[in-house]
Structure formats: structure tokens, C-alpha cells
Amino acid sequence: MTAPPAPGRRARKKAATRQKIADTALRLFLARGYEAVGIRDVAAEADVAVTTVFAHFAAKEALVFDQDADFTRRLDEAVAGRAPHEPLVPALHREMKALVLHCTRNGAEPVRRMIDETPALRRYEESMRLRHTEALAAAITGAVDPPRTATACRALARFTIDAHALAREADDPEGAVDEIFRMIEAAWAAGDGQRAD
Q1: CB atoms closer than 10 angstroms to residue 104
Q2: pLDDT at 127 over 50
Q3: What is the pLDDT at residue 180?
């Protein structure tokens, strides 16, 4: 598998602007409170137009979850980009562990607390989790051979996405991912006889 070409100057500039907006928004949200900060405040502080903020983020909530698309991309790559003959569940396990460790790094606790204390952010996170589940289920369905039932693929996707939330809240996030995936692996293996027709 060859590496994708490096992004051009325009794409790099666009990505830098997006990151600057997200970083600015998060800094303001944590300093003043999510509800107290508007899109105009973010735009002014980031020195961009309000339309530029909306060109990068469809909603205010999305400013907090700026890695949403990257989360989906990484799980898709874990499924589709795994080595030939590498089992599916260990590939998902490895990627989920990396994602959980990223989300529980030092400095992540204030953001997690803000999300937990803000109903709009909790609702957005739940809708995001459903989107991730559907996207991962589609990736799994297209990648397993021999095919599994739609229910099996959706269940694996759901348990994988739920593992992220459960492990993130555990005292030992890394150990929690391992524990959850031992159960997922056993359930997936037990379903070997349940193939799609």
C-alpha cells in the first residue's frame, strides 16, 4: 500500500485555519464556559470571518469535536487498511486503544467535564456516536470475508464504538480497552457459524 500524496499548499492552509479555529474555540469555551461563547466570539478571537467558521464547522458543537472526521477515518483504515489475513477484531482493538489513549492524555479532563456538564454537547456526542457506528458497520460489512450478517456487523461496530466511551471513563483506560475487546473477540468468534447468505 503506497502512502497518499502530501497535501498541497492550499490544503495545508485550509487545515491550519481549521485547527486555529478549533483551538481558539476550545480555549474560549474552557475559559468562559461553553454557553457564554458565541460563534462571533470565536471568529473575532481567531481573526476570521463568521462564514469561515461555518465553512469548517457545521455547528457550534462541532468546534468541541473537531476530530470527529478523523475518528471515522482511522476506524475505516483499521478495517480496510489492515494487513492481508490480519483478523478484523485485533485491528479494531489496536486502533481503539490508540484513540482512547489520545482522548485520555494529560489535559483532556477539563474538556470531558465541559462535555458532561453541557446538555447540547452530550446530545451532539450521542448523535456523533451513532454516525460512527453506522460508518463502521458499513466498513465492516464490506470487509469481512466470508460475509457476516448485517446484525453481526452492526453489533461489532456498536460494541467497538461503545468501548471508546466505556474505556475513556475507566480508572485504567488501556486495561479497560483490553478487557472489553476480549469480550468482543469471544462474541465475534462465537458467531462464526452465523454467516450471511
Answers
A1: 17
A2: yes
A3: 96
Q: CB under 8 Å to 63, separation ≥6 — which residues? A: 21, 22, 25, 26, 29, 42, 53, 57
Cell representation of residue 128: 456523533
Could you list the beta-strand ranges (E) of 105-194: none
9-58 topology per CATH: Arc Repressor Mutant, subunit A (1.10.10)
Residue 142: closest CA among 79, 73, 187, 48: 79
> Which letter does DSSP use for residue 48 in this model?
S
Quick check: 41 and 34 in contact, CB under 8 A?
A: no
Task: Specify the residue for cell string 454557553.
Answer: 35
Scan for cell 486503544, then name that residue.
97
Indicate the residue type of 11. A
Q: Which residue has the higher pLDDT, 102 or 39?
A: 39
Alpha-carbon torsion 73, 45, 122, 94, what sign? Answer: positive
Domain with CATH 1.10.357 in the chain: 68-192
Tell me how far apart the alpha carbons of residues 54 and 74 are, in angstroms, rounded to a whole number: 24
Average pLDDT score, the chain: 90
Report, at the CATH architecture level, how domain 68-192 is classified: Orthogonal Bundle (1.10)
Instruction: Give which of 103, 107, 149 is closest to 128, Cα–Cα.
Output: 103
